[in-house]
Amino acid sequence: MSEFKEIDLSKAKLYPFSLKERKVRVDDFAQGYSPGDDFAFFLDSLPRILKAKELGEFVDLILRAHQKGRPVIFMMGAHLIKCGLSPILIDLMERRIITGLATNGAGVIHDMEIALWGSTSEDVGRGLEDGSFGMCEETGSRINEALKKGEERELGFGEAIGEKMGELNAPYRKYSLFSAAHRLRIPFTVHVALGADIIHQHPSSQGEIIGKASLRDFRIFSQMLASLQGGVVVNFGSAVILPEVFLKGLNLVRNLGYRVTDFTTANFDMYPLYRPLRNVVERPHSLGGRGFSFIGHHEIMLPLLAGAIKAKCSIS
Fold first, then answer.
1. Which residue of 36, 165, 187, 288 has the fewest C-beta atoms within 10 A of its own C-beta?
2. How many structural domains is the chain composed of?
3. 7 lies in a domain?
């Protein structure tokens, strides 16, 4: 027998099962999915529990914003381009689901390399050994030429890149987000951290031009946020820059007197990270609205999200 005294359970209060509400019901269980069933059925076959339920709710909020003509803005890191997801985003742009985009400097680099040469993403480790990483002359010269020409007309960073794509008649431009944005007249802003991108190593780079263009894009992005009431902002894979830009832009439009309180945000990434959770999912909603967080690989999560949007669009 133990030398330590056990708690006495003889007076514990027990209740009938019927008096206690349960969170999980068989009505919410997953259904079987069979070959030949359409994608809409697949979505309905998911359990209406936890993240599967939240994904459906988030898609409904995107469709509500779209139907009411409210903004649906995608902020994204460069990995979406490197993971081959540009066609998915371009499709949503052409359907006018996405009304605005924002990325970092690396997004420009990968998008332009894809458009011009149909490939991107060099071996960083190998290039770092001899100092050749990021030193491709053509990548730097094309982007810096675009920015210099854009500055003459006071264009934003994204606008300048979109125009350059047209001038170059890039052979793979159908895969270019900037080319699509330029063609569809959708704002696509670029937010740069000086010294963080490979082209900043190039002698053709001019910080005053890069800075001006990126600051101009911050103001364009903030103007997008000014009409965010009832809209949606999605952050896909940007761990630091875009969540910070979003928070400052939201603060700015509220400072200027715009009513931006009831809107939806979501963060999609492979890991739960501090900045996106705080600056995208949590802090913006102290006055209303709702934030979501979804964890998973981009090359799976974005096609799933886009497929769900299009499937529900066809039903509604």
1. 36
2. 1
3. no
